[in-house]
Amino acid sequence: MNHKAFVCLLGLLAFPGFAAAQWSTTAPAAPAAAPPAAAKSMPPPITQDQLLERQAKHDPTLFLIDARTPQEYAAGHVPGAVNIPYDQVAAHLGEIPKDKDVVVYCHSGRRAGLAAETLEKAGYKRLLHLQGDMQAWQKDGRPVEAAAETKPGG
After folding, report:
1. Each residue of 121-137: pLDDT tens digit?
2. For 29-76, what is each residue's pLDDT tens digit?
3. Which of 67, 82, 92, 146 fits as disulfide partner to 86, beta carbons 3.0 to 4.6 Å?
4. C-alpha span between 83 and 65 (Å, rounded)
């Protein structure tokens, strides 16, 4: 009897399942890893049509944040949006009303999620995310405003 067979036989006698583990042709199951930290969920969506309807009614309870860079904002943004880049939201909390529906968007959603997370941590409860962000807004031919270019020193 060879050494492996002997060890297997001893394993069978002493520890059920030992031999099967020694002779298995499949990789052993990986130990259960801790689940990754749950990603923060995006605020509830507001559709493009819903936003346009509220804007058409000049809804005073609406505050729209474009969380992209100033350059992206200047190139074209949703009419009425205020540019507060996602990484500057915490520094501009005093400019963002807590008593309004705050709609955030960016190019594709990632930065809007980060901005919304900052707002949520600061106690904002009335947060919404523009469904499809700027990508979908432009793809669907929605109205876009371009910021007037400012010249250095003026």
Report:
1. 999 999 999 999 999 99
2. 444 444 333 336 799 999 999 999 999 999 999 999 999 999 999 999
3. 67
4. 6
Residues assigned a catalytic role: 106
User: Which residues are paired to 101 by β-bridges?
Assistant: 62
Tell me which H or E stretch contains 129: strand 127-130
* Encoded tokens for 109: 């959603």
Distance CA 22, CA 90 (A): 56
CATH node for 45-139: 3.40.250.10
> Given CA atoms 124, 126, 129, 130 in this order, what sign does their dihedral have?
negative
> What length is written for the chain?
154
Instruction: Output the six-digit token pair for 81.
Output: 């949006």
- β-bridge mates for residue 13, sequence order: none
Structure tokens at 141: 């031919």
Q: What is the C-alpha to C-alpha distance for residues 54 and 2, in angstroms, rounded to an integer?
A: 81
Instruction: Give CA–CA dist 47/44, Å, rounded.
Output: 10
